[in-house]
Design brief:
seven-stranded mixed β-sheet; Spore Coat Polysaccharide Biosynthesis Protein SpsA, Chain A; 11 strands; 12 helices
């Protein structure tokens, strides 16, 4: 067994304004550091990030820094960290967030006690002075569960709708099994197929009460607020989800949930891209039609007719379905 109990993977690009808060919060995580490895991936930063890292490097017994001359994206950067992670357990953090005191010891205690493949937890959003606790959508807490219990029901938020990589802790065995890494070369939506793979292929999980992740919202430089071609990665992400579901022994049970999620997010993204250049909207339409072709037509029809009419109208031309059939489905 590894002598490193916990590896903490932190990718960041131009995170200098937030890193002192992050590292200060890490110093308030109790006595974990004799058996913890801190891995920071400087993903093409052009700000003062290297200077901040140099200043804090002596504050932690094991502090490994990987530097990318140019940004590779969150997915690839996290995978770089996983490649050198030695811990029996692994957590992810983002460079602009921070932790409440003793959050990591709380997760580790739960991981040692429950011995599941992965644990999920609540988090706290921060926007200005406003803080709101966001609950992981699972009421059963602090016991080992089958991860598939986190996929359904279809029309309510479930654990696959809560894809945040930093909201939990992961046993090394899911990394060794090949299901913890993120899809390569994704700039956005890297966690959508990732969370489905965990819930379909891991053996056990739990949800615990630990809302000590402070997640910043509303940052002007956040990639989630920028509408460009990088946001189209959600299409590839759902292509991977559909492949995972199609290959599963319980595909018939899980297809409706995957389709419902696709229609909801496609509806949202069509609205987001409404003011974008025509070429980008055409790319969205072509990609969406291609991915929609992976869905069994009869299942797409069944879920489409359950949507509100506004959503049906918005997404209909983005599906790989004949116009006559769309008209029939919308009656």
């Amino acid at each position: 067994m590894s002598t490193v109990d916990l590896s903490i993977v932190i990718p960041a690009k131009n995170g200098a304004p937030y890193l002192n808060t992050l590292f200060s919060s890490l110093q308030k995580q109790g006595d974990i550091w004799d058996s913890a490895q801190l891995i920071f991936i400087n993903d093409g930063s052009t700000d003062e990030t290297p200077h901040v890292l140099e200043q804090v490097s002596t504050s932690f017994p094991r502090f490994d820094v990987l530097t990318n001359p140019e940004a590779t994206g969150l997915a690839n950067a996290r995978n770089q960290g996983l490649d050198i992670a030695e811990g029996e357990h692994i957590v992810f953090l983002d460079g602009d967030d921070w932790l409440a005191p003793d959050h990591l010891p709380t997760l580790l205690d739960s991981a040692h006690r429950l011995d599941v493949d992965f644990i999920r937890c609540d988090h706290t959003t921060v926007e200005g002075t406003k803080r709101v606790r966001k609950f992981a959508p699972m009421s059963v807490r602090n016991i080992a569960l089958d991860p598939r219990a986190g996929i359904l029901p279809i029309h309510e938020p479930t654990m696959v709708d809560y894809p945040y990589a930093w909201a939990g802790i992961f046993h090394r065995r899911v990394l060794d099994a090949g299901i913890l890494k993120f899809p390569e070369n994704f700039m956005t939506a890297e966690d959508r197929s990732w969370i489905w793979r965990l819930h379909l292929q891991a053996q056990s999980f739990a949800v615990v009460d630990a809302p000590g992740i402070l997640y910043r919202r509303g940052l002007t430089n956040s990639l989630s607020r920028i509408v460009d071609a990088r946001q189209l990665d959600f299409i590839r992400a759902f292509g991977q989800i559909f492949d995972l579901v199609a290959a599963d022994d319980q595909a018939e049970e899980f297809w409706p949930k995957a389709i419902r999620n696709w229609l909801a997010i496609l509806d949202h993204q069509i609205t987001r891209f409404a003011a974008s250049p025509g070429a980008l909207r055409s790319q969205l339409r072509r990609g969406s039609r291609t991915i929609s072709a992976k869905i069994p037509p009869e299942l797409l029809r069944e879920e489409f007719v359950l949507q509100k009419s506004a959503r049906q109208l918005n997404v209909s031309s983005y599906l790989n379905v004949a116009p006559s059939l769309i008209a029939e489905m919308m009656k």
